[in-house]
Amino acid sequence: MRIQLNLFGEKLATRLADIEAGRIAPAVPRDAATVVILRNAADAGGGSSPRADSSAPDTMASSADGRDIQVLMLRRTAAMKFAPGAYVFPGGSVDPADYGAEVDWHGPSPAEFGSRLGAPAEVARALVCAAVRETFEESGVLLAGVPDGAPGAPLAVPAGPSWDADRAALAAGTLTLAELLSRRGLALRADLLVPWARWVTPEGEPRRFDARFFAAALPDGQQAVGHEAEAEHVAWLRPASAVAAARAGEISLLPPTAATLNHLASAVAAGAGLDGILATRRAIEPVCPRLVLEDGQAWLVVPDEVGYPL
Predict the structure, then answer these.
(1) pTM here?
(2) CATH number at residue 205
């Protein structure tokens, strides 16, 4: 699949030519984590999702058997340097504090995550910490609970002024995830995260990421609230609705986001509900799109097996 995007301009074409000629080296990808937060559509009330933004309609009829799902999506602010206005999942780069973070941990070991994610245990641990931290920073959803982690044990419900202050401090870098969890007497619930995919930014980009995608269910009692510096709107969209809106030019999706939504839409169409989707053990292979230069124009080449829908 070849894609021509507006963000590919003369500057990028020049960079691609310099890399091909050996004048500059490709940037080294930074580790990053992204979390696809899911919920049953029926949890929105009557199966219809709230329209957080009129440019992102969710008009697909809910399934009669209750297996329909919605995905949390954040619309990036127009001020963002990268992909302004695009609808994305919560996520971001691994911070130095995520490596070796001393947190109570409940769930599969870092080594087990690493075997799925193609990473050493210490990197996998940092990726999981970054996934939890970034999701809380950007959406207010916190995957943490009481330390014993027993079945049915309550998860945190981060609501109120003190939680707002902690979230702001975490986003500002004046509070670490380990400090937040310790202060609140909470354990990181790694068992709530399901490895989903891995995407590596093409070599021609000046900022590259080795992004591991996770899926997780919205914890009971929690609500998603976007971080105003990064998200203009919060929307719960059915995967098929989001893909359809992108095809119609109503919303903007990055290739990894579009492919992930397409996979989820296919799972729903095949009859999988939320529990079935989260129980899926996917093979995690790195997806490495390529930027190619032809007659001065840059193109993004996405492997056909990815199932890019746009």
Answers:
(1) 0.88
(2) 3.90.79.10
